[in-house]
């Protein structure tokens, strides 16, 4: 079992690093051009993968907010994470803006007369 892990762990690391390298935007890559990073990861799987993860990509701080009005936010490492609608103030404001003023009562919902009660 240990022999299999000694083969699979570096393979998984190099596959992850290669996919991360080729899917990263050019402006987020540091120190070398993207093709050189990809070749480094492919030719030297362990050293190249660790180098890419540590030095090849710009990492964003954990508190970086996402685009305004978007249900996504940038979490740790610059990756986009889903924000629940009830935690998104722009979404909550847009709920009342979408309804015409005549359909809203004081609570913001339609009255009982429209429901047939």
Automatic annotation (TrEMBL):
The Cardiolipin synthase N-terminal domain sits at 12-56
Cite the InterPro entries for this sequence.
Answer: CLS_N (IPR027379)
Q: Gene Ontology cellular component?
A: plasma membrane
Its domain of life?
Bacteria
- Its transmembrane ranges are 36-55
Keyword Electron transport recorded: no
Question: What ranges does the record give for the region Disordered, renumbered to this chain?
Answer: 59-117
Membrane topology type, per the record?
Multi-pass membrane protein
Q: Which UniProt keywords apply?
A: Cell membrane, Membrane, Transmembrane, Transmembrane helix
Where is the sequence biased in composition, kind Basic and acidic residues?
95-117
Name the major location. Answer: membrane
Q: Does the keyword Transmembrane apply?
A: yes
Query: Entry's Pfam families?
Result: PLDc_N
- Locations listed in the record: Cell membrane
Q: Know the name of this protein?
A: PLDc_N domain-containing protein
What is the native source organism of this protein?
Streptomyces sp. SID14436
